[in-house]
Structure formats: C-alpha cells, structure tokens
C-alpha cells in the first residue's frame, strides 16, 4: 500500500503497521519494579516539610473563594477577609494528613480497567490540556471534537495508558457545552477511569450526573466509590483561585479524587533552587489537601508535583532537565513523608516528534520511575510545553511506556532460565539460535517493538526508509481505522442521551469566571 506524505514523496506502509504490538494483560495494572531513589537526606526532607509549614503558618496562602476561607476560619485558621490571606496552623495540616486516605480503588465500568491508587502503583496518563493537535498528514491545527475523540480512541487502544486525560481541547464546542461532549466521548469510546475538569460547579455536577447515568450508579454507589479524578493547579506562588477551590470542595464532598498539583517553575514562579521550589510546592499542596479534608474528612486526595526549571534566557519552561529529575525524585520523597499517593509528569518543550522530544520525555519518564510516582501525567503525546498534542509523539511515547512496563514483569531465575542445557549444547565459537532452549522460547522471549525498526540498512531502505515519526503515522492511522468501542457503549450512550439533550436545551453550564 502506497500513501503520500507532505513533500510529495511516496512512501510504503510498513507491514508492522498492521500489527499494533502490546501485551495487554501485562500492562493494565502495574507496580513499580524498583525501590525509590533519593536526592535529599531524611533530615533534608524534614527541613523542607518544616519550612513549608512555616510558609503556611507565617506567610499564608491567598484563597479567593469566600466559602473556602470560611471553612478554614471555622477550623481555627487565621483569615484576613480584606486581603484573602489564610494562615494555617500545623495542627490543621496534621489533622488533614491523618484523615486523607493513603490507598483507594479508582473505579471504572470495566473491572479490568480499575486501578489501586496508592504508593507502589504505577499509572500513566496521556498528554493533557493541549489547545492544539498535530500529525504528519494534517499538520498543526486547533483542537476540535474530532481530534478529541480520536485521541480518546488512541488512549483506549493502548493498555499502558491507564486513565483518560483531556488530551486535545475541543475548541469547536462552546465552553458551556464542552464538558457534556467530553464526558460523552470518554464513555462512548472507552471504559477506563475518567477525568473531569474543575471548571465550575454546575459543570462538575453535570459531569458527575453523566457518570452515574453511564455507569448505572445510584447515589450511594457513586458516593462510596471513586469514579473520576480532576487536577487542581494552584496559582503559584501561594494562591488558590475560585474554580480550583470549588473543585477541591466539590470533589471532596462527592468523594471523588482531586490531585493537587502546583506547577512550580524554579526561577519564575518558585525559588530558583531545587529545595526552595519544593518548599513552595509542598506548602501549596498541604494547604489544598487541608481544604479537601475540611470539606469532607477522608475524601480521596493525592499529592502532586509538576515542578521543573525555566530557561533563564527566554523564560520558557524546560523539561527532562537534571533539575526536573531532581524535583521529581524530591517530590516523591515528600509525598512518602506525608504518606500520600502522588502524581508527577513528564514533558517536552520540543516543537516536533524529534530527538529533543524523545530525550526530554524519556529522561523525565525515568525520573518518575526513580521517584516511584503513582500517576505520571503527560506521559504520551505532549509537545511544545503542552500547547500541542502530537499523534506521532503519542505513538513513540507508547513505545517508551511499554518498555518501562516490561520492567514490571518478573525476571525468571529458575534453573531452566539459567540456560544450562543451551550452554552445554553449544560448542565454543558457536551460536544459540538453534538450541532447544532457544526454540522453546523465541516467539515471546523478547519485547516486540511497536515503532522501532530493527532491520538492517538495506531492508530499511526497501521498506521506504521511514523515520520513527513516519512509522508512527501508519500505526496511529491503523489504530483508529480498526478501533472498536467497548461492547456496552451503545447502552451507555442511550442512558446519557436524554440528560445531555436537556442540558443543551437549558444552556449547558458556563465555566467559573473566578
């Protein structure tokens, strides 16, 4: 089959496009295979924690939502209504950390997709929040409902992506209706744990209602389980705005997961030192975690860290840097210090699915492996510092994630694996291709690459001489062409259809303007 790429040169679609390689049964639930690493001593972690408590106690956090300030005031925090500053005592933080659960099940309508959200678990989420998308056939363009649906299908198709994320913003859907279409697409094309934006109380309520309808849950079943999650970004330094505070409160009261994630860029929105940036990140996390527990003690909440540095020449965010790696590992130490599961992220500032993109993302991915992150966001598809979701980048990143997932497989160490029979069979200077030991194992002994081309130069040229990005184009196209929604999707859509239609007729729900 011959297809065209930009520039007019014909290329041959390689045979491997027709076989998307993954070991589904091995990738759905993963546990970290290695012990977490450290960049700080135990004393250093304690000092960062104590400094963060001092920040909350003496400097405080600006909280723009009156209801949130009142919750803190009722609990004994010092609240200045004129400046909106809230100073939080150590006792409130300590009480919140005691009530926040350290383990819970993240539910989905398919039991095989459910995840334990706890220390030691290893979950991956796609690149998220991108206003644009790009691929080698259609170029860079604004995110649309079509591209959002396509990226949801790609997320569903690969089991190493464990939860849905808001990959491409569907900008052709009005903001007051967008949440309905995003919830509908997640449940029409997938059955993984779902993401809900915290963009206003009516939007959150309607999204919760759609989950109840789609998954056939009564109020008790919804309230007693964790069915969705949101990401709460503080406004570093030391501010929580109205939509984020509403999200913390409403997700807590609904017993759904809020992942508190300051975006502290060292040298810009945070002190320029790694330790200083982590003090700010930790303080903001502790403040928001405390708010969630004031709203509902025992509500699921996760620590989050997405801190890196900026390029001091341009001010642009940088990813996969030594500082990003240190900040990630340090975040893991702090999360374990307070006993909560936690979320981190990879990232890439590259404008194309090139070596820079791969290096930045993969270095950050290894940082999350070393840091034992519970959930790694932006693990596949993220370009331009989050401005664009790349289809080829997504496929190439899946290769890296599947490689990491293979590390979770136990490595046999029994007598047969030690290979005595093969060692005895092969003469010095011989080879092991034809030994009985090899013949019994060769079909599945090694990971079969999804994108990587291991052929020699002549065979590579004969197949079209494609780059990894060009091979990835064929893979995402094939994945979308062959995609099949979960078997119960029609029934799920039928249950949601009337509610969505009523929401649209009533004008939907505008995002919070705070």
Tell me the strand percentage band.
5-15%
Give the proportion of residues in helices. 40-55%
Could you list the spans in which at least 5 consecutive residues all have pLDDT below 50?
A: 1-19
The overall number of domains is: 2
Q: In the CATH hierarchy, what is the class of the largest domain?
A: Alpha Beta
Roughly how many Å is the radius of gyration?
24 Å
Terminal Cα separation, in Å? 53 Å
Number of helices: 19
Placed side by side, the strands forming the largest sheet appear as 8-19-18-16-14-12-11
Q: What summary fits the major beta sheet?
A: 7 strands, parallel
Shape: globular
Mean pLDDT: 94
Q: Which architecture name of the largest domain does CATH use?
A: Alpha-Beta Barrel
CATH superfamily of the largest domain: Trimethylamine methyltransferase-like
Total number of strands: 21
Class based on secondary structure composition and strand pairing: alpha/beta
CATH topology of the largest domain: TIM Barrel
Written overview of the protein:
By secondary structure, this protein is of the alpha/beta class. It folds into two domains: 2-21 and 448-481, no CATH class; 96-409 and 492-505, Trimethylamine methyltransferase-like (TIM Barrel). The protein is 44% helix and 13% strand. A seven-stranded parallel beta sheet has the order 8-19-18-16-14-12-11. The protein has a four-stranded mixed beta sheet with strand order 4-5-3-13.
């Amino acid at each position: 089959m011959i297809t065209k790429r930009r520039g007019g040169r014909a290329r041959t679609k390689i045979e491997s496009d027709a076989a998307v390689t993954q070991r589904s049964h091995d990738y759905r639930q993963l546990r970290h295979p290695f012990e977490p690493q450290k960049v700080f001593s135990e004393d250093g972690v304690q000092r960062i924690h104590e400094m963060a408590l001092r920040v909350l106690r003496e400097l405080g956090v600006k909280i723009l939502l009156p209801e949130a300030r009142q919750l803190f005031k009722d609990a004994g925090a010092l609240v200045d209504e004129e400046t909106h500053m809230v100073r939080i005592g150590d006792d409130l933080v300590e009480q919140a950390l005691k009530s926040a659960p350290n383990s819970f099940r993240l539910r989905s309508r398919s039991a095989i997709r459910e995840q334990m959200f706890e220390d030691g678990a290893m979950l991956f989420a796609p690149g998220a929040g991108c206003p644009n998308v790009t691929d080698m056939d259609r170029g860079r363009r604004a995110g649309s409902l079509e591209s959002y649906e396509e990226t949801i299908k790609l997320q569903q198709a690969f089991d190493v992506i464990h939860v849905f994320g808001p990959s491409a913003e569907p900008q052709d859907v009005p903001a007051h209706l967008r949440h309905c279409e995003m919830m509908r697409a997640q449940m029409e094309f997938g059955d993984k744990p779902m993401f809900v934006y915290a963009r206003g109380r009516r939007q959150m309520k309607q999204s919760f209602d759609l989950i109840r309808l789609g998954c056939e849950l009564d109020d008790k079943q919804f309230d007693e389980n964790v069915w969705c999650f949101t990401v709460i970004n503080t406004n570093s330094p030391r501010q929580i705005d109205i939509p984020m505070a509403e999200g913390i409160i409403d997700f807590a009261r609904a017993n759904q997961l809020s992942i508190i994630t300051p975006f502290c860029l060292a040298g810009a929105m945070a002190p320029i030192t790694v330790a200083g940036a982590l003090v700010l990140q930790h303080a903001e996390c502790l403040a928001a975690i405390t708010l969630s527990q004031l709203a509902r003690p025992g509500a699921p909440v996760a620590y989050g860290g997405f801190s890196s540095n900026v390029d001091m020449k341009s001010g642009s965010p940088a990813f996969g840097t030594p500082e990003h790696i240190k900040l990630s590992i340090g975040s893991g130490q702090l999360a374990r210090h307070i006993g909560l599961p936690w979320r981190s992220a990879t990232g890439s500032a590259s404008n194309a699915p090139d070596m820079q993109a791969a290096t930045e993302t993969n270095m950050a991915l290894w940082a999350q492996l070393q840091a034992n992150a519970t959930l790694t966001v932006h693990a596949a598809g993220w370009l331009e510092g989050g401005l664009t979701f790349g289809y080829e980048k997504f496929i190439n990143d899946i290769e890296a994630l599947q490689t990491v997932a293979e590390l979770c497989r136990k490595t046999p160490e029994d007598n047969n694996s030690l290979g005595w029979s093969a060692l005895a069979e092969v003469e010095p200077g011989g080879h092991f291709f034809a030994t009985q030991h090899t013949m019994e194992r060769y079909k599945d002994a090694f990971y079969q690459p999804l994108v990587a081309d291991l052929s020699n130069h002549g065979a590579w040229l004969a197949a079209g001489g494609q780059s990894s990005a060009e091979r990835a184009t064929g893979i995402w196209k094939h994945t979308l062409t062959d995609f099949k929604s979960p078997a119960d999707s029609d029934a799920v859509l039928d249950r949601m259809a009337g509610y969505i239609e009523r929401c649209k007729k009533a004008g939907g729900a505008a995002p919070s303007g705070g």
